[in-house]
Specification:
With about 300 residues, this protein is an alpha+beta fold. The chain is built from eight helices and 17 strands.
């Protein structure tokens, strides 16, 4: 996905020109993946630009940094204000927001303790992560030969940079084999998540998603969809399931900041249901898109208005 450059980037508390947002080649986070980041969306709502669940994202960033002993000198309130300031500075009505914090330059050893911290917030326009066609008609996925990183090896439930080599390997494998995305299993061969999305399965009217102890990222969109689906009257269950259960699913869909609610129409060259997005997926997707555009009064607390 191509990025359209914007005017300003927030770096360590100040706005700087896009072209000046650089780091040294010896940055520890570059060599060893010792950083944490977030993916957040700002939507053009009926009441002006608004960021979806901004505070929850910045809270998760704090927790991810804590998991790798990276101390953030900014409060959650300060980070929320900085994100909105950066959106305003770039005069954007809708955009993707990428805060990232990492260990900077000091030495070359693996141990980063005592290294300086660097932090950036970048904003830029972004459409449907898996394509408009994917949102409408669903995507084709396969089960990766790469397993999801385990919680015994890294903080798997944190959004830390190094974990995403695992995701990159999985999604490259999918693309090279002609699929749109991938699904990773965990070390117990249970379904975990996509390369950058949480997964939901619909069977017998129940909406099922892997539990946190499956080694998944605790997705903020995932949490939103679980609450929304329950409000809509669906039974929502956190439950482990194996690969072959997906072949018998009535519906499958991904959730995530970038993916939003993306139907899955085929898994491992097998159609999901009748090979088209199902009615429950459609209903949840429609309701979610109304929420992020400010059309549902009940969920306005999930929106943080920029102006």
């Amino acid at each position: 996905m191509q990025i359209q450059p914007t005017d300003k980037i927030w770096k360590n508390g100040a706005l700087i020109p896009w072209k000046d947002a650089t780091v040294h080649v010896l940055t520890h986070g570059l060599h060893y993946g010792t950083g944490a980041f977030e993916g957040i969306r700002c939507y053009n709502t009926v009441k002006g630009p608004a960021v979806f669940r901004l505070r929850e994202h910045m809270d998760r960033l704090h927790k991810s940094c804590k998991s790798i002993n990276l101390s953030l000198p900014y409060t959650i309130d300060q980070l929320c204000a900085a994100a909105k300031e950066t959106v305003r500075a770039n005069k954007l009505d809708a955009c993707y927001i990428r805060p990232i914090a990492f260990y900077g330059v000091s030495g070359i050893g693996v141990n980063p303790l005592g290294y300086p911290m660097e932090m950036f917030i970048v904003v830029f326009p972004m459409g449907a992560y898996l394509g408009d066609e994917g949102l409408r008609n669903g995507i084709r996925v396969h089960t990766s030969s790469w397993h999801r990183v385990t919680s015994g090896s890294v903080p798997a439930t944190a959004k830390v940079c190094g974990n995403y080599l695992n995701s990159a390997l999985a999604v490259m494998e999918a693309k090279l084999n002609g699929f749109d995305e991938t699904i990773m299993l965990n070390d117990l061969h249970m379904v975990a998540e996509g390369s950058g999305e949480n997964i939901f399965m619909v069977r017998g009217g129940k909406v099922i998603t892997p539990p946190l102890n499956a080694g998944i990222l605790p997705g903020i969109t995932r949490d939103s969809i679980m609450s929304l689906a329950q409000d809509m009257g669906y039974s929502v269950v956190e439950q482990n399931f194996v690969r072959s259960e997906m072949y018998l699913a009535d519906e499958l869909f991904f959730t995530g900041t970038a993916a939003e609610v993306t139907p899955i129409r085929e898994v491992d060259r097998r159609p999901v249901g009748d090979g088209k997005p199902g009615p429950i997926t459609r209903a949840i997707q429609s309701a979610f898109l109304d929420i992020v555009k400010g059309k549902k009064e009940k969920y306005l607390s999930w929106l943080d208005f920029v102006k």
